[in-house]
Every structure is written in structure tokens, then in C-alpha cells.
Amino acid sequence: MGYYDYYSSYPNYSDYYDYGYSAADASVFTALWAVFGAFLGVMIVIALVVAILQLAGMWKVFTKAGEKGWKCIIPIYNVVILFRISGLSPWIICGYLLAFIPFIGWLISLGITIYQCNSLAKAFGKDVGYTIGLLFLPTIFYMILGFGKSQYVGNGGFSTASTSYQGDGVVNVSEKPVDEPPTNNDEDNSNL
Predict the structure, then answer these.
(1) The dihedral formed by the CA atoms of 28, 34, 39 and 40, expressed in degrees to the nearest 10
(2) Strand (E) or helix (H) holding 47
(3) Do 109 and 96 contact (CB within 8 A), yes or no?
(4) Of the candidates 79, 55, 67, which has an alpha carbon nearest to the alpha carbon of residue 142?
(5) 3-state DSSP helix/strand/coil percent for the chain, to nearest 5?
(6) What beta strand segments (E) does the chain contain?
(7) What is the pTM of this model?
(8) What are phi and psi of 175, to 5 degrees?
(9) Which helix (H) or strand (E) holds 72?
């Protein structure tokens, strides 16, 4: 009996430490990846449908406010115009840069978002309940604002405001006194 015959009867290293995968294991992994891919595909389709619906709602909101609808497609410019429609300074958007600061920046960004949603709701004559809807279900509430019967009443949400479109994105909001009769321009204004 030789050396080879003697040691060939012992189990080899791979018998104890087999890291290979069997065909059954490979089919399980393939099935898991297929399920994950199908789930991911469904989620992408749902996200695209929600994005298209929100874009359509924002388009109508922009046109109701006297802006051109295509402005809602451009990524940062749409937020500037949305702040203008809400009656806020577009420079407040710079506060979103504070979101890079952990916790404090997140709170400031959340506060700006809440303030903008509240101002947008007031600009369409809506109340606090609508602000909550714009925060938590923006797609639905932009669709309601855009395709519903609500009218753009301007900055601050005064129902007596008259809005007139003055060119590219400029909306003039003037307050009309409710109780005072209109003044006659033919009167003598010598005291002025």
C-alpha cells in the first residue's frame, strides 16, 4: 500500500468546508431577485404616475395664478414661482440650504415648507385644514387646487382682492374696500 492509497481514503478539505452553492440555492436566489425586481418595477411605475399627476395639478395651479404652466417643469425655478404665487419672497428658498445641517437645518426646512403650504392655501382662499392636506398629500391637494373650483385670490388670501395679470409672471393684487363707496375723481382735491 502506497502513500497515495493510504491518504486517499481520508476526506479532503472541501468535504468539511463546502462553500459552494447547490442548484437549489441558486434557484432560490434567482426567485428572490425576480420578486425584488418586480417589486421595484411596480414602485417605479407608481412613482411615475404620482409625479405626472402632481405635475398636472401644479400646471393648473400655475395657470390659475397667472403664471405659465410650463414653469412647473423646471426643477428649481418651479419652487421660486411657487413661492411667488404663495406671496412669499423667493429668497426664503435659500433657507433650504440649511438642510445640510443635521437636525436644526431639518427643522428650519420643515418650517419653511409648512409656511409655504399655509401661504399657498391662503392664496387660494383655503384654511388650515388645506395646509395639512398640502403637507401630507400634496399630489391630491394640488389636483384639487388646480382642477377644482377654487380661485386664486392672491397674497394673504383676501377674498376681496382683484388680481390682474401684468405680463410674464407679475400678478397685481389690489385690495378693494368693502364698506367704502368708490371715490369720484371729479371732486375738488385742493386740500391735498
Answers:
(1) 120
(2) helix 23-64
(3) yes
(4) 55
(5) 60, 5, 35
(6) 161-165, 171-175
(7) 0.64
(8) -80, 135
(9) none
